[in-house]
Amino acid sequence: MRNTLKSLFLIAFMLLTAGSPSLWAADLPAPAATTAAPLPVISQSDLQALQQRLDGLKQQISAANNYNQLEGPQDRVQAFILDVDKLSAALLPQQAQLTVQLGVLGAAPDTEIAAEQADIVAQRATLTEQKNKVDGTLKSLAALKQSAADLITQIAGIRRTLLESELTLGTLSVLNPDFWAPLVNPSRDDRQRFSFFVDQVSDTWATVWAPGRHFYTLVLLALALVVWTFGRRLAERGLTWVCIHRMPEGRLRRSALAFASALATIATTALALHVLYYALTRHAPLTPVLSTFSEEFEKAVYACVLITGLSRALLSIDHPSWRLPAIHDQVAQALKRFPRILSGTLLVLVTLVQVCNATGMSSQIVLTGRGVTSIVVMVIVVTLLLRVGKVRKALVAANDTQANSTFAGVMYTIASISMFVSAIALLTGYVSLARFITYEVVWAYIVLSGFYLLIQVIKDGCEYAFSPKHASGKALKQLLGIGDRRLDQISILLSGFSRAALLLLAVIALFVGGIGTTLGQLATNIMAILGGAGLRKFNIVPSHLLNAVLALLIGIWLIRALSRWLDNEFLPKTDMDPGMCASLSTLFSNIGYAFVILLTLSSLGVQWTNLAWIVSALSVGIGFGLQEIVKNFVSGLILLTERPVKVGDLISISGVEGDIRRINVRATEIQLSDRSIVIVPNSQLISQNLRNVTLGGSAQGVASLELVFPLDIDPEAVKDLLLNTYHENETILEKPASFVRFSKLSPDGITLTVTGYVGSPRIVGVTKSDLLFEILKRLGAAGIALASPPP
């Protein structure tokens, strides 16, 4: 039994460490060469292959003669960088392991002091040699990555230069018959290149359709067709069912339905393309020309699918109640067919242009293809604008307020001006400029529609997740200990921040992308703008954002939880007065939030050595505009620590008398007798004369009344009446004793002042009122009247 357990343990250990041969070298301390750390997995031939791959990309880039031919090489350079990063990541653990092993062995001792065993010397030499090889390989990979990154920058510059030259290049007008000559009567070289492309397509099809492969080819092609047609409908219905039965009724369900419709179209098209590509390449890879063409064709397909998918999701012809934008139903019906027409036409024309680019045909036939594309797209867009304009005019004539949309009017005007400029460019011979404008109009529609859909989904998702009516909102309330109002504020802040970020990305995408731009290229271009030298200087990277958000949320939750624990459990059980408890709780919260902010910045990766300019700016601001804020902040800390006043004290300052309700970081809230609040800066409480009536907790109130009697009264009897009234009042203290003082004697009468003490200054007013009522009652019963005022 024991041998069986040992065998099972050994097998399990081998399975756990099967994929990590370097672990054996670290855990099994055998000095023999056979058990040493494994050699680097990347040989010199692999590095040479990477260098040749990069050199081939450089040759392709140098041979490009138009803007579109650089899109494919740019994607390949990005893939090359990712491959180099993977190889470097695979070597880093081995480098760390060898460093640790050499650290354990230590440096070679001085031969005059001590001598080592021969096996230890051999092992150190072996590990040092292996580490040097790994270090050299990592340096070579870093150099290749840097060269590829520089190549990306060069591609951007070349593309910008080619684009500028193409847009400013003047050719023949489309009205000139010679402009169409390359298309009607192509040159011999262009015909040969096209024939070469057709031959390669035929050879690829012959390989796929070879005897014995008909059945599987037909199955794969049919599967791609089914996924593209029936699969899209099935996926859309399935996602619609999920949204209707799993999403709450309201705006979130409506935006989720639109997003699901677009997602079903894009996902099923991507799956169909992968199946089709597998069907054509499962036996032999594509030739370089066909490979380049397939990459560009895939981009064109995705662009056209985005047009149809986003249009279907936003127009929602079959279910107008699900429609997200405020589009009139008649306008939506007028736009119904145009997305399909535009995407289908654009797919055919762009595919033909890509054939010319992939085969390297002459620039004359490429320009002719651009002219055809511009004319056809312009006709479709102009027809769309005319039809929509006709419908909108009819709606305006019918006094339909829904047709008067400012945003729709702006978009309509911009599209009309763009088409007019494109027509002028075609007539004057600037064909590339016309093609660029028409492409940019289509690209702007894709970007604005896609980001509008994302903004609506995120906005509705935030409103649902933070709503106190739903389970997620209730859970957040219980977790964070916040009320409905705070929950709504968090929802609005997150929604607003998300929309602002998406709008910024949309604006950037309009300028750095275009038809045929892949998602990877778009993300790379956006990060090149957002991740500039400023963000790199502060060491802010996207991977740190999640850590910063988590640190902020967890820190705020901990501060709130500890504050509640102090207020409700710990401080009430101490001997401290309520004012001291409130001061300690406020001081703890302020220090805690400051610590959380520092922790968040540290998690974000901000390097404090790079914040010198912020400190300098703050110094200047403090010297001019922020000195009052800083002074009040420091005064608030003094109030919380020295406690000349505390929460609950009755104070009087600058004619304002009331109870301190709260001491904030900048100002103190004083509640007056009429329940109104006066905000007093903390610096005034430190620098000005202040009367603290309740300081020390032993302050007493003085209830003093001044009464005027006629000259013919008995002063002793009146004195006894007043003292008895004070003595019998339960709020008047026995010590100090109450007394009556003869204040004044005048022809108008005798003025007597009666004084008593109460336990708190806050009850002086109520006590004086009760005493006056009782004194007037007793004076009336005794037949003693007060002196009448002089006429």
UniProtKB/TrEMBL annotation:
Signal sequence region: 1-25
Transmembrane domains' residue ranges: 215-235, 256-280, 338-355, 367-386, 407-430, 436-455, 500-520, 540-559, 580-599, 611-630
InterPro entries xref list: DUF3772 (IPR022249), LSM_dom_sf (IPR010920), MS_channel_1st (IPR049142), MscS-like_channel (IPR052702), MscS_beta-dom_sf (IPR023408), MscS_channel_2nd (IPR006685), MscS_channel_C_sf (IPR011066), MscS_channel_TM-2 (IPR011014)
Localisation per UniProt entry: Cell membrane
Main location: membrane
Coiled-coil intervals, chain numbering: none
Keyword Signal: yes
Domain Mechanosensitive ion channel MscS: start-end pairs: 629-694
UniProtKB keywords: Cell membrane, Membrane, Signal, Transmembrane, Transmembrane helix
Keyword Metal-binding carried by entry: no
Domain Mechanosensitive ion channel transmembrane helices 2/3: 586-627
Pfam families: DUF3772, MS_channel_1st, MS_channel_2nd
Domain DUF3772 positions: 139-200
Membrane topology: Multi-pass membrane protein
Family: Belongs to the MscS (TC 1.A.23) family.
PANTHER family: MINICONDUCTANCE MECHANOSENSITIVE CHANNEL MSCM, POTASSIUM CHANNEL RELATED
Protein name: Mechanosensitive ion channel family protein
Source organism of this protein record: Pseudomonas rustica
Taxonomic path: Bacteria, Pseudomonadati, Pseudomonadota, Gammaproteobacteria, Pseudomonadales
